[in-house]
Amino acid sequence: MFITDPTIVTLEKFTLPISEVPFPGISVCNINRISRKAAYSMALDYASRSGSKSSLNVTAIFENMKHLGKLYDFSFSEDEEENLMEFQKYLEEYDPHQPEDALKGNFNVLEKMRLLQLSGNCLEGLSDCKWGGEKRSCSDLFIPELTMDGFCCIFNYFDRNHPQISKIMREHFNKTLHSSRFGRDFGLTFRINVNLSDYYYSALATMGSKILFSSADDFPDTTSGSLIEKLVPIGVEANLELTAQSIYTVQEARKYSIEKRNCIFKHEVRTIFGDYSQSDCIMDCKIRSVAALCECIAFMHVKAAPTDLGYQCTLADLACLSKYAAKWRQIYPRDYDQEGLEREKQDALNCQKCYPECDTSRYFVNSEQGIITGTDLNYSIVNIFFETPYVEQHKQDVVYYWFDMISMFGGSAAL
């Protein structure tokens, strides 16, 4: 038994103070993916450049700007394919930053389509920020960064490939933040101000924001399975209460293969994001699958992806992206080796090398919401905090140490 399964996970007798567990990475994402004001401003810019050379006027360009939102969710229908291709050609021809000799299909979504500008400045929608009971400028705590939902304001996230980090993380020597005290007054608090008239392309059939919880080192994406999403509607105060589990593995486990111990240590394997985590490994797998099937890189992944994997996906790639979108949202179980799921295996990501981490923290979020009363209700208040001063600690240990083996086999020999 111990040869096939040489490790065992047990609950430690002593709990771990929250000060020794990293606060999760927090992403604040507007459900409105495209700002109406920004889209119209960009339409005016393009119209002035194309002038009489194009049949598209400002109104038509403004309406077509909605198509860029499809690069977030890969939505597509065949009856609009011709329009998408024509607008893609228009963007390539009249984009102010596009080189004259650029090849068709090399249109740079991230920088040249300016999806960042279209999404609006997320920091403008945040106010009344606090961390650890101390009032801070929201720009000290958050930075605009890419997530699975495009550009969001992120707190306590360290992108190892592009280390643009917040002021407060720089104050802590470029390290992830920890909360030393528990309770609503000592976590992260902020107000989300919503401009309803600026909605132009919504991700959901509602208004408000999504709050994403992930490891501070991991790219925020639901495919990994470790990310938690919470919807915060307009006009509520949300208390998002954190609990966590810490898991560590003894060094003695390194003598066993990854397959035997069923986990990978942080510096043992690298992904395109840097040091190993199961979440980033799955994202690596997903990015390579998109590149293999559609020969392009989705704009939200382009900063991490190697340049040799392909160009950035454009409106011309939506037919392919839509075809496989469901596949990229689910993972085939790595440890399932029975027959009967051949179809499911084809219709899901197959990331067999993405083992759990040997040392990690897992987060859980309990949500409570109360209605805000008053006349101006176009905002929400969010409080994120640990609800207890301690977290459970789990230990992955080897079943037998060398001295146990000597004792066991020595006893058998004596018999």
Automatic annotation (TrEMBL):
It is found in: Membrane. One of its GO terms (cellular component) is membrane. InterPro entries: ENaC. Pfam families: ASC. The keyword Flavoprotein does not apply. GO terms for molecular function: sodium channel activity. Its main location: membrane. Keywords: Ion channel, Ion transport, Membrane, Sodium, Sodium channel, Sodium transport, Transmembrane, Transmembrane helix, Transport. It is a multi-pass membrane protein. Belongs to the amiloride-sensitive sodium channel (TC 1.A.6) family. This is Sodium channel protein Nach.
